[in-house]
Amino acid sequence: MFIAKHALGDGTPHPTDGTHATYHHEIRTVLEDIGLNLVLADRYQSLFDRPDVDFVFPLLNRGGFLNSEMLLPLLCNRHSIPYLGASPIIRGMSDDKHLTKMAARDAGVPTLDWAIFRRGAPMEEAKMPKGERFVIKPNASSASWGVSDATDWPGVQAAVAKIHGEGHDAIVERFLSGHDIEVSVITMNGKPIILPTQMNVQADPTILRTYEEKRNLSDGPQRYKMVPYDDPEWLPQIYEYTYKLLPEYLPFDYGRWEFRLDPESGTLMFLEVNLNCNLWSKKTISISAGLAGMSHAELIETILAESLSRNGLLP
């Protein structure tokens, strides 16, 4: 079963999801071209009762409710159906930015100071990290959904209250000027393999990247570009940090580890983990695979074959 919000679409960009609809159609086409016998679904209800399938390729991650990324693997576990990607508890930990930062700090990997404000818990200024500018976002956001910034406690309060009002927990961290380093990882024969690393170079490193920009919903020019990153000064340190973090999430099949680098101050910080990250041919992990000599279709088939093998469905 291939299950995604736009699995039944024709690839036309969606008014609010933008090119995510194009992405889902592309993955469906790749799976069909491989020759798989596909069952298509676009809603969680398709797994409420056990479907007549032996494997699930889940891309229905952003369901519009808290911790929605855990529901599909949970439903698969309920029916004892193997699936692509990490287990529900690992998916939950990776999407919870507070927990990933705690794991990073425990592994000795530096991360920006932060505060977690759970919905329904007291909102206390004493929890705030020190700094002059703060980034506020849903604790399980993706593609910069719901991200904003503030320079004082009243501004932080207002942003957190807005996120709580939409049914989500909020995380606040100190802002670091710079560029995002994207480390794409797949597993082969059970072992993590780091693909060539990318940097998102921002025209203005003090500007927040937006959801609209990442989903190609804005008409203006993109304010960042992705380029291969092979700086001999920083890359060994980035790989060292990534390898320290990887054991917490195995087995996961594919994912992306993100860091923030400010070359001017010489500061490198872990940001977050994105398991089951975007597999669209125009996104980071596919571009990285291309630098390693793999086509987009080969990347998808490799990830899928690894998971099928791990779950005992391939010799």
Automatic annotation (TrEMBL):
Among Pfam families, the record links this protein to: Dala_Dala_lig_C
Domain of life from the UniProt record: Bacteria
Where in this chain does the record put each ATP-grasp domain? 101-305
Q: Which UniProt keywords apply?
A: ATP-binding, Ligase, Nucleotide-binding
Do the record's keywords include Phosphoprotein? no
The record's annotation in PANTHER family points to: D-ALANINE--D-ALANINE LIGASE (PTHR23132), D-ALANINE--D-ALANINE LIGASE B (PTHR23132:SF23)
Q: Which family does it belong to?
A: Belongs to the D-alanine--D-alanine ligase family.
Q: This chain belongs to which protein, by name?
A: Phosphoribosylglycinamide synthetase
